[in-house]
Amino acid sequence: MEQRTEQDVSPYRVFSRAEWATLRADTAMTLEPSEITRLRSMHDRLDISEVEEIYLPLSRLLSLYVAATQRLFRAQQGFLGTEDAKMPYIIGVGGSVAAGKSTTARVLQALLARWPNVPKVDLVTTDGFLFPNAVLDREGLMEKKGFPESYDLPALLRFLSDIKAGRRPARAPVYSHLIYDVVPNQWIEIDRPDILIIEGLNVLQAGRLPKDGKAVPFVSDFFDFSVYLDADEDVLLSWYVNRFLTLRGTAFADPKSYFHRYARLSDDDAVATATSIWNRINLVNLRENIVPTRPRADLILKKGESHEVEEVALRRL
């Protein structure tokens, strides 16, 4: 009997970095080095080679997927005899704290917005849909901030439904990392983008399916494509601790910062504090809620300790 390898039966096709880089083909580099520096989060590694070898091939793939989805949408319109508004293409970007989701989302937005047809590309993080700290305090959820139960899921689903339905404008709440809370009465308006990128920890979360078979919407039901940023636990911990150490002299130094109390910690105390927060909150969330969603992604970017993507897994069609 023929022996099949794990790769043979996997729903993913796995590429080495070098193999993936060749798929860029003739996709043009549209970002300047100075722009790449601005797009990078403080602890991420992002340079010209990372954009050329990882994100340009992904941009090329997405251009093909978006075009195919638009053709399918027009075919459905013809079948139904309707003239619905254009259907925005929604891309989800998920993964652990410190995995580099924000950088990936910003790079994709910059690249996609410079396609020849100049599409309108917006970016929203799910942080704005966290319950305010006052609610989390009242419900005993401050230690579970970032867990699925800490989000106003109905509000997030209404927002995504409005986007898909072409309602204008759709509004998303604003979150401040400085005060570590949702900003009261502040919104960003998303007005019928061609492409919308949704970035967040638990965007691929599915939850338990109902036994009665009734339809239950999940955030990922609105996605046309999804990306998961992956790295080993020990690597994520080291990135988180390094970021925490850096923030002592930057964001934490601001007296308005929620974390200002950490600004004067010694290196040893800062490492111990960051490690404790990671083990008590982020690692639990990673194991219980985030990693289990990884197999639901269309594309998995596996990072090594240097922050470089070392392997790419693309879901087979």
List keywords for this structure.
single chain; 317 residues; Rossmann fold; 7-stranded mixed sheet
Description:
- The structure is a single chain.
- The chain has helices at residues 6-9, 17-21, 33-39, 48-80, 101-112, 133-138, 153-164, 233-247, 267-290, and strands at 12-16, 89-95, 121-125, 170-176, 181-190, 195-199, 225-230, 299-303, 309-315.
- It is of the alpha/beta class and 317 residues long.
- Helix content is 37%, strand content 18%.
- The chain has a single domain (10-204, 216-315), classed as P-loop containing nucleotide triphosphate hydrolases (Rossmann fold).
- It is globular, with a radius of gyration of 20 Å.
CATH homology superfamily: P-loop containing nucleotide triphosphate hydrolases
> Which blocks of ≥5 consecutive residues have pLDDT under 50?
none
Could you spell the SSE succession in H and E letters?
HEHHHEHEHHEEEEHHEE
Q: Choose one word for the global shape.
A: globular
Tally of separate domains: 1
Query: Radius of gyration, Cα only, in angstroms?
Result: 20 Å
Helix content: 25-40%
List the quaternary state of the chains.
single chain
Overall average residue pLDDT: 91
What is the name of the CATH class?
Answer: Alpha Beta
Judged by helices, strands and strand pairing, the structural class is alpha/beta
CATH fold type: Rossmann fold
Q: What gap, in angstroms, lies between the N and C termini?
A: 27 Å
Strand-residue proportion: 15-25%
Total beta strand runs: 9
User: What is the makeup of the main sheet?
Assistant: 7 strands, mixed
The CATH level-2 architecture is identified as 3-Layer(aba) Sandwich
